[in-house]
Amino acid sequence: MIPVQLRLGHLYPREMNLYGDRGNILALVRRAQRRGISLEVVEIGLGDSSTSLLSSCSGFFMGGGQDLDQGNVAEDLISRKGPGLVAAVSAGKPLLAVCAGFQLLGTHYLTAAGTRIPGLGLLPLHTEAGRRRLVGNLMVATDPALGLRDPILVGFENHSGRTILHQGLRPLGRVMHGGGNDGDSGQEGAWQGSVVATYLHGPLLPKNPSLSDWWLRTAAGGHPLENLDDSLEDAARKEAMALGARPTRMSRWRLLGRGLVVRKGS
Amino acid sequence: MPRPARQGGGSRAGVAGRKLRLRAAVVLGKATGGMSRRLRLGGGTTLPGDVARWVDPGVLRAMAGSVRAGTVLVTGTNGKTSTAALLRTILAESGKVVGGNPSGSNLIFGLTAAALTLSDSQGRIDRDWLVLEVDELSAPQAVAEIRPQGLVVLNAFRDQLDRSFEVDQIAERLATATSTLPDGGFWVGNADDPRVAAMAGETTAAGTRRILFGLSAGGRDHLPAVSDASGCPRCRGEMEFRVVFYAHCGLYKCPHCGFQRPQPQVVASQVNLAGLDSVELTLSGSEDGSEGWSVPARVRLGGLFSAANVAAAAAAASAMGVSPHQIASGISAFEPAFGRFQVMPWKGVPIRLMLAKNPAGLEENLTAALELDRSPVIAIGLNDLIADGRDVSWIWDVEMERLRESRPVTLVVCGRRAHELALRLAYAGVPQDRVVVLQSARAALDAVAAMASPLIPVPALMTYTAMLEWHQLLGGGGGGGKGGRA
Fold first, then answer.
1. Per-residue 3-state assignment (H helix, E strand, C coil) for B214-246
2. pLDDT higher than threshold 90 for residue A219
3. How confident is the model at residue B100 (pLDDT cuts 50, 70, 90)?
4. Which of A246, B205, B239, B427 has its CA 20 to 30 A from that of A31?
């Protein structure tokens, strides 16, 4: 039986909402609703620390923020949310972290001045300040092991941090177009168990329904979900892919090498 | 290309050399402008600036320095073009000879190009005043080069984040421009925008006259769902808003550090919004200790944010010595600027172009179109070219949900990212039978014309290049050109 009631813990909705992150919450709520599941959104902000609040959630989302906000948030995340969040994801509850949220899950962030800002340490990765910002359309072929129905994700990135995955941590996928974690390795994001982190920022879920469904499925304890009519979502996806994020020839070869077929303009 | 070596020193040969270089820069720049217009390479709004600055990097400073009374810069995220145009009209009505950059080309190259078209071959500008709108990020450089008499700071919203990055950085640039104003000038700032108001106390130089403007009006009792400025600019604590006029501008107070909205010296009150066609208001001013003034005025713009722009222009004009009476008559003589409430017909149906290029702009224009207007159709255009901002994430921060409860309208969505917009509307719960998706501007215009009334202008809320395209189709020619915004 699929549970009819799920709770989404939205971490730091006030501080981490720079690029239309609200769209992600909307996408999860709406896709749950269309399947007869009610998804209650619980806002978890600075200072909130009750363990029962965190353990009552079926899964979590954390968006991107400005630099100033990130300092406040890092401290709060480690001291007040850490244990509860670690327990929840160990129990298989999904956590989707975007951009600054992605960086906060690592061991630390090294600023340009050499200051080390500690992160939650949930994933074995760290981020270093980069000189040039990576800004632009980003297209990713996700790790087949994650099992997304549609393995290609599309969106936008805007970050100056370069994220380095430590030994053994799998990237979320390979960059088809754009910069990704460091603009160089071809790696984008990271995933481990029920934690997915990515530089695809802002409203990535409306346009990537298969990732929304991954979150919902994981939050529902792995129960398969019925398919929905995604014609509006697909139109927006196609538009984004065709206009902004055509895979470069190089990455197309790379993908062919990995056995992923990429159709032109789709 | 290597730049010709700079001549230094104050010797007579040096002075002559500098003059020669300035003349060469002006002549070459002007020639480039003429050529690019003749070859229809565009409006000639930035390239001449590039060429002239390559020949003489000091060309803008020299040209601006020749303006008789001085230059006033208008900056901020939204309202620059309208406010600068208002100020120019007020000055012209008061008998001054004024120049500016009405094309909206507001990066440093665009400012140089605008100055070139106004200058003679010696680099002299025969004007009493120059009123230039300046991009927020270019404001510090513009202040350093031009040494303006005045600076008007309208607001700091999130705008095209793939270009400007973060709101804090925009505010920082505006603060830098503010703190580097030359002595003896004036600074006009928005008391209703906490980030701008905070600059008044801290960063203006001691020899600068500070004038705050603001609204005295009703408004909403809450901030938009996603706001840029719920945090106090002083202590980062959560602020309380008693009234919200538009975006994050209103009457605020920080319960943590006590920072609150300062009392503005120039106020727009008794604001009466008559559809999208005009705003009636009373402007009043009082400077520390002096006798106050008050005049009624009417402007051909729409929405509460337009009243704020009028107050900003009035505050600047008053600082420049224009009488209240002349300010009011200048405001009523004002004609809407390029693509800002400009009405143009398509197949007999009037279309009202309204630039909406960021969350605050779209939010406020949409509210105005729904609440003040009666058009059964509203067009929204979303492009993702460099001048629009390539990241369209921001549309998810606009409270489209209000369309569910508003009066029923058909939405014609168009542009390169029309489907993204349609998806946003669907997720906001707008019924699908009220949304028409047409990527092409021409098809969208035809659809709009078929559905609209010939008596009520159709609000067309457009990002920058989408607006340009409509403006062209509507017979407005090329218009501006924000070239080089990357």
1. EEECCCECCCCCCCCCCECCCCCCECEEEEEEE
2. yes
3. very high
4. A246
DSSP summary character for residue B278: E
Q: Which residues of B188-222 are buried (b: 16+ CB within 10 A; e: fewer)?
A: bbbbbbbbbbbbbeebbeeebebbbbbbbbebeee
ipTM of the complex: 0.87
Q: What are phi and psi of B29, to 5 degrees?
A: -60, -45
A5-257 CATH: 3.40.50.880
Chain centroid, CA A240 distance in Å: 18
Q: Which residues make Cβ contacts (< 8 Å) with residue B236, sequence separation at least 6?
A: A68, A72
- B-chain CB neighbours of A207 within 8 Å are 420, 423
Rounded-to-5 percentages of helix, strand, coil across chain B? 40, 20, 40
- Give the pTM: 0.85
pLDDT digits (tens, 9 = 90+) for B401-452: 989 988 899 999 999 999 999 999 999 999 999 999 998 999 999 999 999 9
Burial class (CB in 10 A: 0-12, 13-18, 19+), B329: middle
CA distances from B458 to A93, B58, B358 (A): 49, 46, 20
Residue A202, pLDDT score? 79
What's the residue count for chain A? 266
Q: What is the pLDDT of residues A245-256, one digit of tens each?
A: 444 444 444 444
> What is the Cα B229 distance to its own chain's centre?
19
Question: How many residue pairs bridge chain A and chain B with CB atoms within 8 Å of each other?
Answer: 92
Residue keyed to tokens 């990097």: B57
Rounded to whole angstroms, the Cα distance separating A232 from A195 reads 27
Phi/psi region, residue B347 (left: phi>0; alpha: psi -120 to 50; beta: rest), is left
pLDDT over 50 (residue B1): no
Of A27, A67, A235, the CB nearest to B419: A235
Stretch (H or E) spanning A105? none
What pLDDT band is residue B485 in, cutting at 50, 70 and 90? Answer: very low
Residue A99 known to be catalytic: yes
Domains of chain B, each with CATH number or no CATH: 71-90+130-333 (3.40.1190.10), 340-476 (3.90.190.20)
